[in-house]
Amino acid sequence: MRHNRSSFTPPLGPGDWKAIRSLVPYLLEFKWRVAAVALLLIASKLANVSVPLLLKEIVDAMNQPQALLAVPVMLILAYGFLRLLSSAFGELRDALFAKVTQRAIRRVALQVFEHLHSLSLRFHLDRQTGGVSRDIERGTRGISFLLTFMLFNILPTLLEIFMVAAILFVKYDPWFAIITFVTLAVYVIFTLVVTEWRMVFRRTMNEMDSRANTRAIDSLINYETVKYFGNEHYEVARYDEQMRQWEVSAVRNQTSLATLNAGQSVIIAIGVTLLMLLAADEVVRGKMTVGDLVLVNVFMLQLYMPLHFLGFVYREIKNALADMERMFKLLNEDREVEDVPNAAPLRVEQAAVRFENVSFSYDPARQILHDVSFEIPAGHTVAVVGASGAGKSTLSRLLFRFYDVDDGAILIDGQDIRQVTQQSLRAAIGIVPQDTVLFNDTIYYNIAYGRPDAPRDEVVRAAQMAHIHHFVESLPQGYDSMVGERGLKLSGGEKQRVAIARALLKSPALLIFDEATSALDSKSEKAIQDELHTIARDRTTLVIAHRLSTVVDAEQILVMEQGRIIEHGSHRELLQKNGTYAQMWALQQQEQGGAQQG
Q1: Domain of 418?
Q2: Cα–Cα dist 277/281, whole Å
Q3: Which residue of 202, 269, 434, 588 pairs with 515 in a disulfide if CB–CB is 3.0 to 4.6 A?
Q4: How would residue 198 be classed by pLDDT, with cut points 50, 70 and 90?
Q5: pLDDT in the model for residue 598
Q6: How many CB atoms sit inside 10 A of residue 498's CB?
Q7: Of 316, 331, 346, which residue sits at a domain end?
Q8: Any domain includes 142
Q9: What CA–CA distance (Å, rounded) separates 306 from 311?
């Protein structure tokens, strides 16, 4: 990986300014609070700049012969009061601005989270959960830093530098102001150049950190698989390789930081020394008092701290922008599937479904569906069977509009699903997927997820219909039992029954069963099949199945092969045709007979 750039890039690029501009609406939301903060900020800096002026008066007063008899008490009291005001204004300013910062973090995090849920299934199949979560975490932290330090450090520091330079220019030799400005200019240029060089290391470090985090989470989620194959050392070695690369970048980041700090200190030291030499010469020649010497010294010390801090803040702002850059990339991800302008909600009357000459491919190089046409009349059950990879599950994904068809159309009650809102479409469809993944929460929560506002008795009724109620009641904590990460505390059959209960609770007009009973034993499968037939009686139902015994009662069975429907008809009609379906039926009956004999 290269760590050098061919040319110096601007301190803030278009992407950085875009990120900064994106925060303006959050400031405008609390404009009166922000205005009060700005006034407090100015008052704090005025008090801060006034402190050395008072200190000069105190020193000059104490330097007079009569000072032994009359200590300038009022000046000393005023000096203490100004110091107190400077601190008090700063604390009050921070307290007032806290709500602005936290609200911005909340809004942006919510915006990213909502956007992630609006992205297509393709994005979520490609993404790495650990890396995305770390990007959001660092990005929101960057927003907090940017808002706070841009307003409370860069602007007030520039204001203080301007006021100090003005005082030096008016009260003393112009060389005081000239040396101050030259020192500042050299300092800023040096900081910008070195910080840009350092940002490569920071970005690499962030990337390695996200990769390591992704790898760790992926490994822990697949804990059982790791154990099955005894690959603990292999996983540790893979994680360590990512951490080793992170370590290299982190060391480079730290050593470059030391270089920057050392250079800044040298520049400030030279500037302060030149100013003090000039001031001492002025005192010797009688043009300045000892108080003036103290004034210049204190001013430079006060300038040195914000100047030094300005370098730190600039570095951290660049870091925050780099962190935000990855998060805003998520917001810039295009939604592959979007509602058309003024999309109407789906009007469900009978829930009749029609696929009209549908063609589709996940990748242009590999076509999945070829000119598929069929109809599911209202209240009827249509089953789709075929070998793995025939395109069966793609039908349900297209019906749910996780993807849009390449050619043709899918209609529900005569409405093209691309012309209606996705929310209304998905509200009308209930699905029991083959691979059931549950939330790391209670069994009750996972069933109630089908309709979160459903009363408890309806949740229990859905569990009874899915034949899981008695199992749940037998658990020590009943419905409050935790299912674990991805539902790992439950067996495959138990998870599938929770999924069935969840779909039933949703009470949709259209049901999809995608290998819904594949994880159940024969006895449980028979019981749930009977229940599913009862449930499907009044609903339009699409059943995707591998085991043909589960679809013999369907009004129509479609046989798919390589993305095409090659046979269709009832179970009896397909057997009479003595084609692909009949061969599949004979083979499965033979396998089932062999299993029973075994």
Answers
A1: 382-597
A2: 6
A3: 434
A4: confident
A5: 47
A6: 27
A7: 331
A8: yes
A9: 9
* pLDDT-based confidence at residue 12 (cuts at 50, 70, 90): low
**Sequence-distant (≥ 6) Cβ neighbours of residue 310 within 8 angstroms:** 153, 154, 157, 188, 191
Residue 568 neighbours by CB distance under 10 Å? 17
Contact criterion met (CB below 8 Å) for 439 and 445: yes
Map residue 339 onto helix, strand or coil.
Answer: coil
Residue 213 identity: N
Contact 524, 560 (CB under 8 A): no
Write out the two tokens for 50.
């006034």
Q: Among 77-91, 434-448, 522-536, which stretch is predicted with the lowest mean pLDDT?
A: 522-536
Number of compact structural domains in the chain: 2
Pairing of strands 407-412, 353-360: antiparallel
CATH number (domain holding residue 416):
3.40.50.300
Smallest CA-to-CA distance from 380 within 425, 410, 348, 350 is with: 350
- The whole-angstrom separation of Cα 408 and Cα 354 is 11
393 and 246 housed in the same domain: no
3-state secondary structure of 579: coil
pTM of the model: 0.61
Please tell me the distance from the alpha carbon of residue 253 to that of residue 201, in angstroms, as a whole number: 5
Q: Which of 296, 314, 331 is the last residue of a domain?
A: 331
- Mean pLDDT of all residues in 183-188: 83
In the sheet that holds 407-412, the strands lie side by side as 369-376, 353-360, 407-412, 415-416
The answer on 278 and 411 residing in a single domain is: no
**Is the confidence at residue 205, as pLDDT, over 80?**
yes
AA identity, residue 191: T
- Taking alpha carbons only, the member of 512, 566, 562 closest to residue 540 is 512
103 and 196: one domain?
yes
DSSP string, 421-484: -HHHHHHTEEEE-SS----SSBHHHHHHTTSTT--HHHHHHHHHHTT-HHHHHHSTTGGG-B--
- Quick one: 286 and 421 in the same domain? no
Q: Is residue 369 part of a domain?
A: no
Instruction: Note whether 299 and 393 are same-domain residues.
Output: no
Q: Is residue 339 part of a domain?
A: no
In whole angstroms, what is the distance from residue 281 CA to residue 296 CA?
A: 13
Handedness of CA 208, 209, 210, 214 (dihedral sign): positive
What pLDDT score was predicted for residue 29?
A: 76
Residues 407 and 288 in one domain: no
Question: What own/partner pairs with CB < 8 Å and gap ≥ 24 does 514-517 have?
Answer: 514/392, 514/393, 514/396, 514/431, 514/432, 514/433, 514/434, 514/544, 515/433, 515/434, 515/544, 515/545, 515/546, 516/432, 516/434, 516/543, 517/547, 517/550
pLDDT of residue 227: 84
- 322 and 430 together in one domain: no
Higher-confidence residue of 257 and 382: namely 382
Q: What is the CATH number of the domain that holds 323?
A: 1.20.1560.10
E-only strand ranges, 66-198: none
Which H or E run contains 359?
strand 353-360
Query: Is 20 inside any structural domain?
Result: yes
451 neighbors 505 (Cβ within 8 angstroms): yes
pLDDT at 9: 41
DSSP 363: B
| pLDDT tens-digit series, residues 132-170 | 677 777 777 777 777 777 777 777 777 877 888 788 778
Cα distance between residue 416 and residue 413, in whole Å: 9
